[in-house]
Amino acid sequence: MTDRSQVEQLVRELHKSRLEGDLDRLCGLYGADARLRIAGTTDGKPIAIAATGSAEIRPWLSILVKTFRLSQYTLLSLTVDGARATAHWRVDIHSKITGVVVPTELVDLIDVRGGAIASHTEFFVPV
């Protein structure tokens, strides 16, 4: 059974790994059969990613880490209910390709199973 502190720590580690761009540590937080979904919009254009299992999730996370640097992190709220967490956070997203910086708010919906992320849905929108 996963307790509240374990779920909270997993969410904080997820965000820390994203901020530090540590792909191996980031991928290690997901279970082998985890689901990842990312949805949002930038410049009025929708973006959607869906992946299941580590073989599909790692390439997407690799693209995110290689393309974007995150800074000015603020965790606005974190709610844990059993093995589920909802995190509302804000960062500046720096494109390593264009140099553009976009202040962005994100919401993560995370389900934890066996101490790892089983399902992660992330919504984002520039502010």
Give a verbal description of the structure.
This protein is α+β, with helices and mostly antiparallel strands and 127 residues long. Helices cover 28% and strands 56% of the residues. The protein contains 3 helices and 6 strands, in the order H-H-E-E-H-E-E-E-E. The chain has helices at 4-20, 23-27, 54-67; strands at residues 30-42, 45-52, 68-81, 84-95, 101-113, 116-126. It has a 6-stranded mixed β-sheet with strand order 2-1-6-5-4-3, covered by helices on one side. The longest helix has 17 residues, at 4-20. It is globular, with a radius of gyration of 14 Å. The mean pLDDT is 96.
SSE blueprint:
Layout: H1 4-20, H2 23-27, E1 30-42, E2 45-52, H3 54-67, E3 68-81, E4 84-95, E5 101-113, E6 116-126
Parallel strand pairs: 1-6
Antiparallel strand pairs: 1-2, 3-4, 4-5, 5-6
Q: Key terms for this structure?
A:
127 residues; 6 strands; 3 helices; alpha+beta
Summarize the structure.
By secondary structure, the protein is an alpha+beta fold.
What is the first-to-last residue Cα distance?
Answer: 37 Å
How do the strands line up in the largest sheet? Answer: 2-1-6-5-4-3
Order of helices and strands: HHEEHEEEE
Task: Give the overall pLDDT as a whole number.
Answer: 96
Helix- and strand-based class? alpha+beta
Apparent shape: globular
Radius of gyration: 14 Å
Can you summarize the main beta sheet? 6 strands, mixed
Strand-residue fraction?
Answer: over 45%
Helical content (DSSP H or I, runs of 4+)? 25-40%
Spans with pLDDT under 50 lasting ≥5 residues?
A: none
Number of continuous helical runs: 3
What's the number of extended β-strand segments? 6
